[in-house]
Amino acid sequence: MKSLFPFFLLVFIFSEASMAQQAGAVLTTTPTYKEVIDQYEQLDKSSDIAELKTMGPTNSGFPLHVFIISGKKCFTKADADKNQLPVILINNGIHPGEPDGIDASLQLAKDILAAPQNYTEILQKVVICIIPVYNIDGALNRGCCSRANQNGPEEYGFRGNAKNLDLNRDFMKLDSKNAESFVSIFQEWKPHLFIDTHVSDGADYQYTMTYVVSQKNKMNAKLANYQDNVLLPFIQEKMTNKKMEMTPYVETMGETPETGITAFLETARFSTGYAALFDCMGIITETHMLKPYNDRVVATYWLLFSTLGKMAKDAKQIFDLKNEAIKETASMKNLSSGWKLDTTKYSEINFKGYEAGHKPSEVSGLQRLYYDKTKPYTKTIKNYTEYKSTIEIALPSFYIIPQAWERTIDNLKLNGVPVSYLKRDTTIEVESTYIEKYETVKSPYESHYLHFDTKIRHEKQTIKFSKGDVIVKMNTPMNRFVAEALEPQAQDSYFNWNYFDGTLQQKEWFSDYVFEDIAAGLLKEHPELRTQLEEAKKQDATLNENANAQLIWVYRHSRYYEKTHNRLPVFRGIQ
Ligand SMILES: [Zn+2]
Fold first, then answer.
1. What order of strands is seen across the sheet that includes strand 367-384?
2. Which of the four pLDDT bands, split at 50, 70 and 90, describes residue 202?
3. Fewer CB within 10 A of the terminal residue: the chain, N end or C end?
């Protein structure tokens, strides 16, 4: 890494284009985890405006670190708030095979601390928090080849963590120690802007840097407006000036970019999706896998640097905007969910791609796609960035969770959600949520049989709760997160991530030859039930032809059937 420093100075002076001609100066390696932490420790020792803090554990056995840089020595959130300073949190190495941000962040920290007098505005007006390597487990699992298509570095880490989890799907379900520790860091610092650094896969094109900004429709509107219309254009302009023009992340509508590209919907399982739940703007850097490692690190470096510059310029505005957004979140009445891309709305952007074509494959003999780098083009393509919600969920005045569901309660608390405990056994009229329908993935996804397309119904019930059961307060800045976690229809809800699967299995049954007589008695006693059954039989031929199914139908409409089957153990307060 030491040799990097003069290399970067050269970059600054001679620009990226001339860098490519500096024989031997081109970056082709990335440091090991230990080398990264050693260098941050050195920086910590040599500077009084930076601190390396040891945080919670990861599944690797090593703790997470946060490196904080602050010209005003605001090394706690309380100090940052006292000085009204916005906080940026930069996360690196969530996918350690994509280490561009690990190198870029370290180099940026070195440059700032080597010559703080050149970075006065940034140092005085922004608190910079860097997670040097997030997926330490994956970074330790180093090799040459797991990213088959990537153009360097020579060695890098592996995507899965020690439990083979993709940490960029773990922010809601919290299966990894890494994610638990991240949540603690995030909730301690409550950043104004979050950046997660990556390398893309997918189509070929001319750009080195592509980006995802947190999807605007699911965010606070004021923050989304600043993020998309003020911050992003500034970064784009700076990058263009550095001859590192960027384009939105290339998620194509069809096979190639000419078919149009779509904004990525990063739901709460993703890093910036999680951040947005707490009114934090988000940027994902996605350098292009086919570009040389050197160029990718330089582009990431400049994106981070440009972002810091704008944050410093707009520090007060960003600080105030978040406070306004938090207030709005605390008073939100509905959670919008069921996001679908609105294909009727798009903007047109200039896109610098390569002509694509098809030719016979030497492997299969069938047609294959290829991009022709000798035929670069600039074309106008459609950019679809609007999502519309298909479900509106009214927020309750509070939730009650029986204490048995400790994982749910613990994770809410870890996220800083305010809770209180019932002081005595109490009977309360609440709105219960029944799971009516759901789909489940056919093979394990991120260690879960994830549910989706969940449908519910509500029912008013009077429930006896016990001393120690938990009341989750609403009308707080946590509203969006709490509703995303506890409302089953939300895409990354705790229900969908299997937190409540125990409720989906019926525990008590009946013996048919005994229940026949009870069922007959019930139908005689309640002619309205008989009418309902006859109606159900008319609508459902299978029911009509199946004696046992009809017995089950009567059972499920009787007092013998357990009320807890398919009932979410999260009750909605009515007030
Ligand atoms: Zn990635």
1. 261-262, 367-384, 347-360
2. confident
3. C
Contact 544, 382 (CB under 8 A): no
Query: How far, CA to CA in Å, does 307 sit from each of 130, 135, 321, 399?
Result: 14, 24, 17, 39
CA of 98 to the centre of ligand 1 (A): 6
Could you read off the pLDDT of 469-512 as tens digits, one per residue? Answer: 999 999 999 999 999 999 999 999 999 999 999 999 999 999 99
**In terms of residues, how long is the chain?**
575
Tokens 């773990």 locate to: 170
Quote the ligand 1 centre to 440 CA distance (angstroms): 25
Query: Residue 467, exposed/middle/buried by CB under 10 A (0-12, 13-18, 19+)?
Result: exposed
- CA pair distance 113, 119, nearest whole angstrom: 9
Query: Looking at residue 1, what is its pLDDT?
Result: 39
Indicate the burial class of 2 (C-beta count within 10 angstroms; 0-12, 13-18, 19 or more).
exposed
From CA 70, how far away is CA 51, in angstroms rounded?
Answer: 9
- pTM (2 d.p.): 0.94
| Ligand 1 geometric centre to CA of 180 (Å) | 19
Residue with tokens 């603690």: 184
Pairing of strands 470-473, 398-401: antiparallel
Q: Compute CA distances 296 → 207, 238, 293, 465, whole Å.
A: 10, 16, 5, 56
What is the distance in A from the centroid of ligand 1 to the CA of 524? Answer: 64
Q: How many angstroms separate the alpha carbon of residue 284 from the centre of ligand 1? A: 9
Question: What is the distance in A from the centroid of ligand 1 to the CA of 252?
Answer: 17
Describe the crossing of helices 479-486 and 315-330 by its angle, rounded to 10 degrees. 50
Out of 3.40.190.10, 3.40.630.10, 3.40.605.10, 3.40.50.11740, select the CATH number for domain 49-330: 3.40.630.10
Token pair, residue 111, equals 């440059």
Three-state secondary structure string covering 370-421: EEEEEEEEEEEEEEECCEECCEEEECCCEEEECCCCHHHHHHHHHCCCCEEE
Q: 């009509």: which residue's tokens? A: 544
* Domain residue ranges of the chain, discontinuous segments joined by +: 49-330, 396-504+568-573, 512-556
DSSP class of residue 128 equals E
The Cα 479–Cα 487 span in angstroms is: 11
Tokens encoding 157: 């880490």
Q: Which among 567, 562, 430 has a CA at the least distance from the CA of 495?
A: 567
Q: Are the beta carbons of 252 and 203 closer than 8 angstroms?
A: yes
Report pLDDT for 25.
Answer: 62
Give the span between the Cα atoms of 53 and 63, in whole angstroms: 10
The CA R_g of the chain, rounded to the nearest whole Å, is: 27
> From edge to edge, which strands make up the β-sheet containing 87-91?
50-57, 63-69, 127-131, 87-91, 193-200, 281-288, 209-213, 246-248
Mean pLDDT computed over 233-255: 97
Contact 193, 280 (CB under 8 A): yes
